[in-house]
Protein 1
Amino acid sequence: MKIGKEQNGDTLIISLEGRLDTNTALDLENEIKDLMEIKTLVFDLEKLDYISSSGLRILLSCQKKMNIQGKMIIRNVCDEIKEIFDITGFSDILTIE
Amino acid sequence: MEKFKNLFVEFKSIFVTENVLEENERHANIVTATTMFNLFSFCILTYLLTTLNVFKVDPIMMKIVIITSMLLLAIPALICFALKGRGKNLKLVLFMCLTTMLAMADCILKYNATLVMVIPIVLAARYYNRKFTVGVAVITAILFALSTYLNVYVGKQDINSYNLIIPEGTVFTVNSTLRDAVTSVQVDEIERIKNIFIHFFLPKLFLYNIIAFACIQISQSGKKMIKHQQEISKKGVRIETELNLANTIQKNMLPSIFPPFPEHKEIDIYALMVPAKEVGGDFYDMFLIDDNHLGFVMADVSGKGIPAALVMMISKILIKNVTNVEKDVGNAFNRVNNMLCDGNKAGIFVTAWLGILNLETGVLEFVNAGHNPPLLFSKSQKQFTYLRTKPNMVLAGIENTNYQKHEIKIEPGDRIFLYTDGVVEATNSINQLYGEERLLNFLNSNTELNANDTIIAVKKDIDKFVGNVEQFDDITMLEVIYKGNDLSVAEKSFKADIRELNNVQAFIQHALKKCNCDNKTIMQMNLATEEIFVNIANYAYSNENGDCNVIISFDQDKTFKIRFEDKGVQFNPLERREPDVSLSADEREIGGLGIFITKKIVDNIEYHYEGEKNILELTKIIN
């Protein structure tokens, strides 16, 4: 999986390309260890075509953190992944644009 | 003390090696040495008596003889004990010293020591060595002749030897003892010596010969007996070696490579034969009559051991060959029966069950010659029942028996389980039988296993039931699972490691593509696979060394199934509490999502624990 990081001031945009599964989730976790200064966290999932429960776990823990610090936005979710969010109730927890 | 006890072991003649004659010689040496030691003790007594002047012989000479004797006895005896009787020429040394000592004693105390001449030869018989016994007999005789001669000049004289040679009219005056009076008479010494040899030595020699003869006989028959025993035991070893070879030949005759017909995915078949003795009388067989017909057999030859094994070999070959030609189970058994009856003088018979399954249509034709009824599993009814038909007479019983063919139709997912007496009649220590009911119940609680695992599981159950009791009869089982046509099955084993995830998903994706599956379903199945596989990889095995077997099947109902099997800790993931999806982010728990997602995206999910395996099966209907 390719992880793109773009920071503009206190906004961090993370774009994911490929699959977010158990193995690649570890890479993502390492990339977003330090969120101290961030007020807006954006995940661009346009090129992400697969997510599993490990990915959901990371999104959930980020959401919890950002609920204190600022806000988190998920963008460009494909249909299959949106369905997963719906089934698991994540659609209500995440801010999806 | 231990050493003393060990000496008694020698006396008890306990043999431990194969070289019995050599061990016997060691034991015999110890006996001889012990006898010498006893004589040694006797010498001590004699010495004491000499000091008390009991013997009317020159005490100084007596003492010299006694001391010399004690040396001749003690030294070789102690050497023998030290060597524990070992030593090629030890017996020669022992006997030379012993015989010399006895000759000396006889020489001095001819009057008292009459019996000593037989001691060497009786001891020699113990060696079971004819040559040695004869040698000892001859040398003893010579030494005693010598001692008889020397006795004329030294030692105690027997006044009987003066008989016949004292001239008529001689007058005695007994001043001290009669012996002194007689021995003081002047006689022709040559005459006296002649007298001694003819009237005293010769008779003794004659009697001695008789004893010697008996001892030589003992030595000869002892050796013959030992040699004969060795022959018998060699034969026994040879027979055992041949039995083991026969066992190997038999084992190789029964199909043991599974799957036997890998290109035929319509069937899953496995069989096992565990003989009670080295060679058994049970057998099974499976063969393709043509590309669409599977023949399979279960049989039990009466009796055990070599006779049953020989009939087993013949029967197996006949059944297969005749069935391949006749292609009809009834005709096949009719012919095989007549062939086996021909020349069956030993009265051995065979119970047998033969089935021919049409792999395309599921029609099963079968015939039963006095054999146990098989168990039939119906997928629709989800249980096993006994397939009972009126059995015909056993094979090799009566000529021209007419064997009745039966026919049923089985559906994909159905199974036939065949077995022999050894299964249902397996007995435990309180004489209970494993029985038909136990077998039925066990099979009904293990309906998810494949043929191989089923049979192994049944065998384990029988072993558990029987416990320590020795296996009495051959145990044989065969199972055929009919999977039907239009079926794709693929099976692969992966290490239960998350790094294998991509490989597992590739395996499944490949199969899905072959079924013309749409992309969305592919993605869903990939996701389900990840959730299940990651769970197994992380939790099933505590030491990271375990496998996960993945079996994919797709049948004509467009049902796609993925089955995950692992031998790890027993765990039913379906029992986990589902996460509450209505909670907010802060309230949500991190875990439990994987199984939840899987349940939602597949059409059916089932868990079983059978044959010590966790079995999780996902079902998805593909359009």
Protein 2
Amino acid sequence: MTIGYHIAENFIIFGFIFVAVIIIFTYLMKLLQFFINIYTNFVFKTIKRRIKKAIFLRHKFVPKKFKIRYRNLGILLKILHEFDQTVKSDEWSEVRKVLIRQVMLPLARKYSTSRKWIKRFYAVNTFILLSEEHDDKYIVKLIHDDIPFIYLHAITAGLMHQSENTVNAVIKKMSLESWTSQSTALEAFDNTPAGNRQFIEKMIHHTNDISVKTACYHMLTKYPVGKHDWNINKDLSSTNVELRIAVIKYAALLDHDLSVSLLRKALNDDVSDVKVIALFRLNLVKAEEAIHDIAKCLDDEDMTVRVVTAGILKNFGEKGLKALQSANPELRDISYHLIQALENK
Amino acid sequence: MLKEIINTFNWSILWYLIALTFGYIILLTVSLPDILEKFRESEIDTISDIVRSYALQPVTIIIPAYNEQENILDAVYSAINNNYANKHILVINDGSTDNTLQLLIDTFNLQTIYPILPKYVNTRSDIRGYYISKYHLNLTVIDKINTGKGDSLNVGVNVCKTPLFATVDADTILEPDAIGKIVYYALSKPNTVAAGGAVYILNGCKFHDGKITDARMSLKPLYAFQTCEYLRSFLFNRSGWNAFGGALSFAGAFTLFNHKAVIEIGGFDADNLAQDFEVITHLHEYQMDRKRKYTIGYTPSASVWTDVPGTLKSYWQQRSNWQRDTLRSLMLHQNMFFNPKYGMVGLYNYPFYLLGETLGCIVEFTAYILILFSWYVGLLDVYWAILFFIICIGFVTFLTVANAFISIVTFNKYHRLSDLLYLFFISLFENIGFRQYHLVCRVVASIKYFINWLKH
């Protein structure tokens, strides 16, 4: 029992001292962070001053003289962003090119394999700004990263890089992470080179993987439509619902006649989700010639299809309303009420 | 003989408390780097720029509400005014008998629509009305019959079309960057299925139209005691669990979920009032059973402010419900207990939650009874009793004070010196009286639970 008391007493003393040490440690870390912030601000201002001298006083910007302590990718990205917003001059464009090529890109290559995710994040943001031919291996590695922040931005970097390796890596990643094919994530494709289309088309030709094909079709909706020389009908008849949906979304962008014929075919699909998307796309392409086929969907066993059909027919004006009015109220329950509501509007 | 028995009990309890205290010290130690890192990150401008981007994953903010006419508008405004760009707000009126629904209809000019909704998870209630706002196109309100918070959340899961959703209580106000910071945390880790945020006490604060205008500690002791408790829980406790694979519960007032992951486990348990505990534990079990790499973590930088019970009676009711339903959840997943298949969660987190956090109240209560009994029969070991009070009450008080000190230099929400001094003062007295009241409440709830369990 005496030993027990000793252990308990020592534990209590240890516990209190330890917690007190933790409090002191926290304050010391805060003090350290304070000094780090002062230093970081100093570095930030020094780099800004040097760049301003190069732009406004036309001093030569020599990267070799850029000291190691200034080579902080996080700070450089922030400064670049600030100057991009505030300075619009040829001098800045020149300095910017040199800064990215000779200072930031070597850092980005080094950071792309860092264990710290924030460094990899800075690396990928640098590759979005600019990348060179041999950078595709770094970008591909970042596209396959586990951290969503990194691979989301790496998808943009891969598309900006415009090489077969990086575009294929993007396709592969998007096929694995299906949410990246949602419309908001596809914004990563905005302002990326249209030349990527050729790689996507090549992938569609060569792959049999359904999820890869699905990702390709989603990606193709973001590029100007060109000729397509593969059998799109075969993909529209696939057993995979996600692929059929992706094909329909792409089909709506094709030449009007081809688009309408493909979408009409999709109205006979077994799955109601596919029919609904085809209906919305027919509405988008204003396929008046397909009104008759659309109206047949008022007989569909799925209520969603019937409701969507009724709404779309209304959008076609007089022709659509005629098709609606010929509906049999006994069979088309909610569609009928919708007709009434729409007519009374 | 009696002396031997009392001594055995005494020392068992003391060793238990030493082990528990050691566990809390470990949590405090491992939480510190995380807290400091999150604090450093939260000051980076880059985060603000990142989370304003529309390219990030859209989030649905689900707000279940039952008779919340006093608070609902502030909660909804705080969600609308949140600076996360890509969000939808979904309020679920759980059959309120007051003016909650009418208030929403009038304030946000809600119009009825008739969508067809998928059924990802089972729900008990039919939807009575579905409204969208003409003023805020990303605001939707659903009216349903009263079936409880869990079922309301399941309705929200069915209606939600985004890959992420955040559950927020109707008496809670989000900080403007709360959603951004929690999404930032979720997207900076691989395969995040759930992420928890910090909760502070709204009572005592001044707020207007969903925005905190003056963050203050309430002078009312009950609120102040709960402030200490929440600070302890949300500053170091949950941060500490990140190092061990993630806590088994986050605050129901503010948690972010991966939509697909919640659908896979069948949604929330509609019969459980501690659904926040149950769903997180279930997610851990589900992911581990399938040997998936996942993240369930907590970030103290994303914070909200919530109402807490203001009377002893309502406080008793809340904590009884939590205790009973936490026990229920733990028993449901008892296969995780010391099971190496579940990694650190099975070997450390679950046993600590069960034997320490949940059943610890019974051990402490037994100690009080033992002290009284020993004194009555003249066998009280005074020195032992002093050690017990130092470890049990003194140490917890010291931990609360330590948290208050740490919070000053990290996520400090109370900037007034008077609030900080009051916080220190109240933490000294939290464990005299209030702690014992809380203890009795939890012991009674535990006993009722076990009696019920034995009957069935």
Protein 3
Amino acid sequence: MRDAATPKSESKRDWELSEDAFRQLLQWLDEGTDSGGAKYLEMRRRLVSFFDRKNCLAPDELVDETLNRVARRLKEESAITDTTPAQYSYIVARFVFLEYLRRTETRAVRLDSVSQLDGPSVEVAAGSDAQVSREEKERLLDCLERCLDRLEPENRDLIMHYYHGEQRTKIENRRALAERSGLTINALSIRACRVRGRLEACVSECAGTIQ
Amino acid sequence: MHPQIPGDQLITQYLLGSLSSEETERLDELSLTDDEFATRLRVVEDELVDAYVGGELTGQTLQQFNSFYLASPRRRGKVRFAQVFRTVAEQHARTGAESAQSGVTARPIAQGAGSHRARRLELLPSSGRAWQWGLAAAASLLLVATAWLASENWRLRDQVNQARTEQTAVEQRERELLARQRSFTSEKEVEVARLRENLDRVKRESTAPPSQTLWQFPAIVAVVLTPQTRGVSQIADVNVPADTDFVAIELQLESGDYPGYRATLKAVSDNQVIWRSGRLKSRTSGDIKVVGISLRPALLKSSRYMVEVVGISAGGSNESVGSYVFRVIK
């Protein structure tokens, strides 16, 4: 466990996220409330999506790097007050992404190995992907059933009815569902989206697929 | 939704990678800093994926979905989930309709039954008479079997279509990446040729007879840049007259802790690297640490550029210390 006496000149790469530093990070993200870690998880989710939209190879690693740097700065400075947590996290994430780009560009520019392309996305052999796809779908169906079992009945009912029907029918169903639930259409869509997100995460964990 | 949140159409374009770099950067920031936008982004992405799975995307939107959205393993996972979920949701809908028709109470999929598939039902009879129960059970079983066969047929067709679509996306991505690599190669060749030409010119000039050498002071444009902070800030305009020999840029550092620095010049429009420095050392100007770079005007057009500076630690690792944006006017 490191403390405030750790000299700043210590290499940044050697710095590890201690329990104390992590707790400080959670409190800083909560901005005076106690979300029980929900704000941290949401920030992680947003950062993963950010790096994934940039087609980065390993979004989770880049998110770890981002949050580690934020936590390190918090530990060294005791507070970051000139900007909001989300804003600061974005700034750091952007730097991490730019560094990632430079690393991938440096590897890509090799005049003597044109075939060794190491760009910011991963390609799967089309032939093997089709083979895996069928087995994976079988596994996903099983996992989805188990994950639906674990949902609260009202959420399971909501998610099934929310995605019932096609186009016009679906819109009418959702309107009716919103009225029955006492929600606006927008609030209903947000709730359905969150339940779906939980299902996706559950299925991903169950099936062991990348998400 | 407050007025500054982009509409769903813009969000869709953002998800398909078809916005300008400035607009993309703006939405990148919102996706992390604005709760309402972050939520809306998730909703729109789910709807986009569902539209793709439902075969509702066409034309350029479909093309962009295949070439850009499906390039990420994580996003392909979302599509696979959506396909499976659609199957289950449709089965659930069919089950509800069939129960209403056959007059039995059905508990549809996945309510603690421990079934292997989402197609199994538990039926609760509403009549006490044995033969009626037998008929109702047989009719329901027949309906279930029919529904299962139809679902299987749809699922297999969808698998084939999906495999074809993914293969097309992979091939397209391969072509794009290869073209990009070829572009890198030719750019480097051009740069090497240019450097050789400059070297030859310098050699010629250094061996020219003294009477042919014209001594004159080089025309230098000097500019001082501060690091870019978030949001809109003033971008420095740099006027570069035609007879300029060098553009000397002094980059103010927020921290001067590193033994060395390196700078990279990029075009803002396409993030293309224009020039890289060698190892630089910081110096003190007043009470501010700075590093200086010197650029040939031929590198610069009337456009916006960004200089990215990294600090080189004692261990040799690079860490970003700042970026500096300026606009060249020629």
